[in-house]
Amino acid sequence: MKKMIAGILAALCVASAGAANAADTVTIRVDGEELALEEPAFLENDRTLVPLRGVFEAVGAQVMWDQDSKTVVVTQNQEDALTVIVVQIDSKNAFVGEEQKELDVPATLVNDTTYVPLRFILEELGNSVTWDQETKTVDITTA
């Protein structure tokens, strides 16, 4: 009897953990199309962090990674000008061109995937970003 109760409790714990993770899932849409990411986006301190390469390449940006300095460089041509954004892992400072700006949350590495704050970089690249709290959906409209 004790083993059966323990088994039921364990099953309930696993089921509720899965439901909690599903509730924390963030959906990303680019110009109305849901983006399939290899690694999931997540929330940290009310900010959406996304796997760098998948999202930014979807909006036409180029992404470079420097392993030695743990630095990400995102570039995109906009109206005859090149926008360059440099972000270092675990730093709240970012550079847009030569101007230093502060991030709400730092870029981070999770299981060898670089995660960055979505809104900051996308808006610096001229895109529009909206957040639906009820559905935990980010809608990106490209420039």
From TrEMBL:
InterPro entries reported in the protein's UniProt record: Cu_amine_oxidase-like_N (IPR012854), Mao_N_sf (IPR036582)
Pfam family, one: Cu_amine_oxidN1
Keyword Chloroplast included in the entry's annotation: no
Alphabetical UniProt keywords: Signal
Residue ranges of domain Copper amine oxidase-like N-terminal in the record: 30-140
Signal sequence coordinates: 1-22
Keyword Signal on entry: yes
The protein, known as: Copper amine oxidase N-terminal domain-containing protein
Organism: Candidatus Avimonoglobus intestinipullorum
